[in-house]
């Protein structure tokens, strides 16, 4: 599956659980690369609901990508998310 390329960080959001080592991997990469993503902790019910209704899975980390048409795409797997961010920034 291919994901849309975006240049605006406002079109990206990272769904995480702070105790998840895979989430920590992505958050640490973002800090090191100075990519300031909005983190959405699924411990907050509203973020879990959005992840479940949009992405269809409870799995984190999950990167929500909003394309040019305003449609949401959901990317799972920490290494895939990091590779995607490396390709953009």
Walk me through what this model shows:
- The protein has 89 residues and is an alpha+beta fold.
- It is built from 3 helices and 4 strands.
- A 4-stranded mixed β-sheet has the order 2-1-3-4, with helices on both faces.
- A hairpin with a 5-residue loop joins strand 3 and strand 4.
- Helix 1 runs parallel beside helix 3.
- The longest helix has 13 residues.
Topology:
Elements: E1 12-16, H1 21-33, E2 38-41, H2 45-55, E3 62-66, E4 72-76, H3 78-88
Parallel strand pairs: 1-2
Antiparallel strand pairs: 1-3, 3-4
Keywords:
89 residues, alpha+beta, Glutaredoxin, four-stranded mixed β-sheet, 21% strand, globular
What is the gist of this entry?
This protein is an alpha+beta fold. The chain is built from 3 helices and 4 strands.
The chain-level mean pLDDT equals 96
Question: Outline, from the CA principal axes?
Answer: globular
- How would you sum up the major sheet? 4 strands, mixed
Q: Stretches where pLDDT falls below 50 for ≥5 residues?
A: none
The CATH class, by name, is: Alpha Beta
Q: In the CATH hierarchy, what is the superfamily?
A: Glutaredoxin
CATH architecture designation: 3-Layer(aba) Sandwich
Structural class based on helices, strands and sheet pairing: alpha+beta
The percent range for strand residues is: 15-25%
Strand tally? 4
- What is the helix tally? 3
Radius of gyration: 12 Å
The count of domains is 1
What is the share of helical residues?
A: 25-40%
Could you spell the SSE succession in H and E letters?
Answer: EHEHEEH
Would you tell me which CATH topology applies?
Answer: Glutaredoxin
Report, as a whole number of angstroms, the end-to-end distance: 20 Å
């Amino acid at each position: 599956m291919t994901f849309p390329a975006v240049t605006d960080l406002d079109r990206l959001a990272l769904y995480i659980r702070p105790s998840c080592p895979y989430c920590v991997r992505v958050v640490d990469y973002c800090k090191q690369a100075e990519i300031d993503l909005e983190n959405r902790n699924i411990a907050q019910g509203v973020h879990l609901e959005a992840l479940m209704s949009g992405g269809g899975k409870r799995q984190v980390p999950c990167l929500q990508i909003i394309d040019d048409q305003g449609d949401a795409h959901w990317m799972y797997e920490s290494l895939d998310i990091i590779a995607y961010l490396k390709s953009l920034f």
